[in-house]
């Protein structure tokens, strides 16, 4: 970037001086010296990314000292109110899309000649309020699209040559000049041919070549500040005015100080050129000057005279000009007027020659507390009266409108906005007879209540009572109204049939819901922002048959599903109603987790929006799944496994407890049974009829008397007989097995099928493997032939047992039973026999 600075100097001295003859040689040296200390010393370029969605980059008030880097696509770049001193050759390269650039209010002293060359698309350029001491035509040589150029308030003394605006073929709005502007020469504006707006600040202009501004035509509006010339150089001021005055041009003269006959003379030029519309802005004027002005424009076709910001040093004595003719005057507008000698101010009675003509009269913000009835009677043509922002009260209003006697009978528009009026019924009485009144603006007054009945002129269409303190409305509001503004009151409801109403403004009240649409069959526009609306829906809007535009933002919306859904479709134009305040004004207030979220961007889930449906569906699904799982588990015998695990865990625990208690005590002493018999209930008869008698009651005459000793009776543990009542069954089984030497399983199909037996089996199985009893603790007795494959697969432990342990089969033939018993007894006695 530093590379560019030497080039910059050379280009800078290419300016041609204002007074070529005298200063040419000095000039280059001067500029060089001036610019040298201003060259900034490199450093990193700041950046600014304060760009919005429309690519408007607002980098104003950023304390920037250099042009910052901004996104390439920016359309508008606002660099106003920074401390930028220089625009280098490549500060703005790559911004071909830039449409608007503002450098207003910086400290710009140096602009590289080709600084703006890449801004092909630039339409607006604002360089006002800077330190540019000279203008360079090269800056603008590539800005063919430029429509608006503002060079005001810079300390250049002339526009320079070659003509700076020559290439700006599209220019429509131009402002130049400042406190230092001394000279305007013919040709300075060459290239500028047609302007909508021209602003020239030339309070210190001392040299003007007649015709300099004469080539611009048509010229929509000209604003001139020519204070110095009006005071000291009447000829120059007249020449300037003469060059820009056309009948269709609106002439605005600023900052004038008109005190003597002399200073008014340039106005003759205006009258001569038949200017019709004229404004004095920031004017201080004496009585004498006003009278002279009236004389100067005598007979001119001036139709509109605007005075904005006038300080009147006199007393309103303008009768000297009574003879003058001002019948073309149609509109007289006075705003921010200050009368220094307000208490000496004469009534305007002497001004009939002026007051009888205008149809429009505005006296705004000028501390008017009364317009005497006699003055009102002079305003015979008046159709439009604006007395807004004054000091009228109910009492002085009565005087101004002659107590409602029908003075100002042609009045169509009456604006009393911003006064100190309090009584609507007084207001009503004063205008009842104004039979042509269509517009009544009584906004920003102190009305706090409304009478029950009123009689308005039947022509009244527009009524504005906004910014008052109304809490209720009554049938006082006429049914003829087409536009009604009641915004910024304290209304809580609105129920009044207004069949002709087209526009209703209710923003800033306390309404909880939209007023029923059936009351306004013709309503097209409704504004109801900043109330306390929680929501509204399609049917609310459908009750308004003709509604087109709605503004309902900035309310405390409850973002329910219905509302969010409705609003999102309304934003997209569904429902035929246009939300003119933009979707970003619609913000959720509740529920809490959505607070502050624009309704348009809320995404509500199905869970929230269809809660009942969601709950029923999910319950249904859960139920079905539950049933399926249960069926599946049942099919897979999972319950059985579960129960088993539980039982086993319990049994394990209590068994451990017992074992600890048993420590140290002789095992034999604890073994109180020879065998625990595990059997199915269906096999109970066999156990009771055969097994128990056979083993517990040894017979005297044993058929099988191979062995002559009478066999010792065995003690058996049967659950039916020996279990302690009240104890948990598994505990019983557990302790029974622990207290028995053997466990005899009576295997039959019944056994295998019975849950009961499964408990025992499984438990004993663990016991058989974990316990101290050893491998022969289990004895299997097969009551009926049962192959291993008959046993369901899940009884894997039983199957394993069957394959590992030997087992006894209950013989089908009677005669072989003796052998069976012997074998069983032998198995039960086991060790005992070996001891013998
Ligand atoms: C740009 O930003 C400044 C402050 O940063 C603010 O005062 C100004 O109003 C903004 N301009 C626009 C047009 O938004
Ligand atoms: C412009 O004129 C005013 C008086 O009207 C004077 O005070 C001021 O210094 C002048 N400015 C320049 C830059 O000549
Ligand atoms: C009004 O004009 C006076 C000079 O007559 C000037 O000093 C003052 O700044 C102007 N006021 C405004 C608001 O332009
Ligand atoms: C004001 O000046 C004009 C022209 O300079 C002159 O004709 C006229 O008589 C003067 N009016 C007064 C009241 O001095
Ligand atoms: C009445 O005056 C106020 C303030 O000057 C203005 O905002 C409003 O638009 C005017 N009303 C009408 C109906 O012209
Ligand atoms: C009603 O008056 C207020 C305050 O003067 C103004 O802002 C508003 O635009 C007016 N309403 C209409 C519909 O003109």
From TrEMBL:
Record-level GO cellular component terms: plasma membrane; receptor complex
Keyword Cytoplasm: no
PROSITE patterns, per database record: LRR, TIR
Membrane topology of the entry: Single-pass type I membrane protein
Stretches that traverse the bilayer: 612-634
Every TIR domain range: 671-828
Keyword Membrane recorded: yes
Top-level taxon of origin: Eukaryota
Keywords assigned: Disulfide bond, Glycoprotein, Immunity, Inflammatory response, Innate immunity, Leucine-rich repeat, Membrane, Receptor, Repeat, Signal, Transmembrane, Transmembrane helix
Localization of this protein: Membrane
Family that this chain belongs to: Belongs to the Toll-like receptor family.
Physiological role: Cooperates with LY96 to mediate the innate immune response to bacterial lipoproteins and other microbial cell wall components. Cooperates with TLR1 or TLR6 to mediate the innate immune response to bacterial lipoproteins or lipopeptides. Acts via MYD88 and TRAF6, leading to NF-kappa-B activation, cytokine secretion and the inflammatory response.
PANTHER family associated with the record: TOLL-LIKE RECEPTOR, TOLL-LIKE RECEPTOR 2
Protein name: Toll-like receptor 2
Species name: Zoarces viviparus
Lineage: Eukaryota, Metazoa, Chordata, Craniata, Vertebrata
């Amino acid at each position: 970037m530093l590379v560019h600075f030497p080039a910059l100097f050379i280009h800078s001295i290419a300016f041609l001086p204002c007074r070529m003859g005298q200063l040419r040689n000095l000039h280059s040296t001067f500029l060089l010296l001036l610019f040298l200390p201003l060259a900034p010393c490199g450093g990193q370029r700041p950046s600014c990314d304060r760009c919005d969605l429309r690519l408007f980059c607002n980098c104003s008030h950023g304390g920037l000292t250099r042009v910052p880097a901004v996104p390439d696509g920016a359309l508008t770049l606002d660099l106003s109110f920074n401390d930028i001193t220089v625009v280098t050759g490549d500060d703005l390269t790559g911004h071909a899309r830039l449409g608007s650039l503002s450098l207003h209010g910086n400290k710009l002293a140096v602009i590289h000649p080709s600084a703006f060359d890449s801004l092909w698309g630039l339409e607006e350029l604002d360089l006002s309020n800077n330190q540019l001491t000279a203008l360079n035509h090269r800056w603008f040589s590539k800005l063919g699209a430029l429509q608006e150029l503002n060079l005001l308030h810079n300390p250049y003394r002339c526009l320079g040559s070659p003509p700076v605006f020559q290439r700006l073929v599209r220019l429509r709005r131009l402002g130049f000049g400042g406190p230092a502007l001394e000279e305007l020469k013919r040709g300075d504006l060459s290239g500028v041919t047609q302007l909508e707006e021209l602003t020239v600040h030339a309070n210190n202009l001392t040299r003007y070549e007649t015709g300099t501004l004469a080539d611009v035509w048509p010229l929509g509006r000209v604003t001139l500040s020519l204070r110095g010339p009006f005071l000291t150089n009447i000829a120059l001021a007249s020449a300037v005015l003469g060059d820009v005055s056309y009948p269709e041009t609106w002439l605005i003269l600023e900052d004038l100080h008109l005190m003597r006959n002399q200073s008014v003379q340039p106005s003759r030029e205006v009258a001569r050129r038949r200017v019709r519309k004229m404004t004095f802005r920031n004017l201080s004027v004496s009585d004498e000057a006003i009278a002279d002005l009236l004389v100067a424009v005598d007979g001119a076709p001036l139709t509109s005279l605007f005075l904005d910001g006038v300080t009147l040093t006199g007393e309103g004595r303008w009768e000297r000009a009574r003879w003058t003719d001002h019948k073309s005057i149609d509109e007289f507008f006075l705003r921010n007027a200050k009368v220094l000698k307000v208490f000496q101010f004469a009534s305007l009675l002497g001004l009939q020659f002026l007051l009888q003509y205008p149809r429009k009269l505005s006296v705004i913000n000028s501390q008017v507390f009364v317009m005497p009835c006699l003055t009102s009677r002079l305003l015979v043509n008046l159709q439009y009266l604006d007395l807004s922002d004054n000091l009228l009260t109910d009492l002085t209003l009565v005087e101004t409108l002659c107590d409602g006697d029908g003075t100002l009978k042609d009045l169509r528009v009456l604006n009393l906005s911003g006064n100190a009026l309090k009584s609507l019924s007084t207001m009503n009485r004063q205008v009842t007879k104004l039979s042509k009144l269509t517009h009544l603006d009584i906004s920003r007054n102190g009305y706090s209540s409304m009478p029950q009945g009123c009689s308005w002129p039947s022509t009244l269409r527009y009524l504005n009572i906004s910014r008052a303190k109304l809490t209720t409305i009554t049938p006082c509001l006429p049914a003829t109204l087409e536009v009604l503004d009641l915004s910024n009151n304290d209304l809580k409801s609105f129920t009044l049939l207004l069949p002709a109403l087209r526009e209703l403004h209710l923003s800033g009240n306390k309404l909880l819901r939209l007023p029923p649409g059936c009351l306004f069959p013709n309503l097209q526009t409704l504004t109801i922002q900043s109330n306390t609306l929680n929501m509204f829906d399609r049917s609310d809007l459908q009750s308004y048959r003709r509604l087109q535009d709605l503004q309902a933002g900035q309310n405390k919306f409850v973002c329910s599903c219905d509302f969010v859904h409705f609003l999102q479709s309304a934003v997209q134009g569904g429902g035929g109603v246009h939300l003119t305040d933009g979707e970003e004004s619609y913000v959720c207030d509740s529920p809490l987790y959505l607070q502050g979220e624009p309704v348009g961007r809320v995404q509500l889930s199905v869970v929230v929006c269809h809660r009942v449906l969601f709950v029923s569906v999910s319950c249904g699904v859960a139920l079905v799944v539950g049933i399926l799982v249960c069926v599946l588990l049942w099919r897979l015998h999972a319950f059985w496994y579960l129960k088993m695990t539980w039982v086993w865990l319990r049994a394990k625990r209590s068994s451990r407890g017992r074992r600890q208690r048993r420590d140290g005590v002789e095992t034999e002493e604890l073994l109180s049974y020879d065998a625990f018999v595990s059997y199915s209930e269906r096999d109970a008869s066999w156990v009771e009829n055969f097994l128990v008698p056979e083993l517990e009651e040894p017979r005297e005459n044993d058929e099988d008397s191979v062995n002559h000793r009478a066999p010792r009776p065995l003690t058996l543990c049967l659950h039916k007989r020996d279990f302690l009542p009240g104890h948990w069954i598994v505990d019983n089984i557990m302790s029974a097995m622990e207290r028995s030497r053997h466990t005899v399983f009576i295997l039959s199909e019944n056994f295998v099928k019975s849950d009961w037996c499964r408990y025992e089996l499984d438990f004993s199985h663990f016991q058989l493997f974990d316990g101290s009893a050893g491998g022969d603790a289990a004895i299997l007795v097969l009551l009926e032939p049962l192959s291993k494959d008959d046993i369901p697969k899940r009884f894997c432990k039983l199957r394993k047992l069957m394959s590992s342990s030997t087992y006894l089969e209950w013989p089908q033939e009677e005669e072989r039973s003796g052998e069976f018993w012997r074998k069983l007894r032998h198995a039960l006695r086991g060790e005992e026999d070996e001891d013998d």
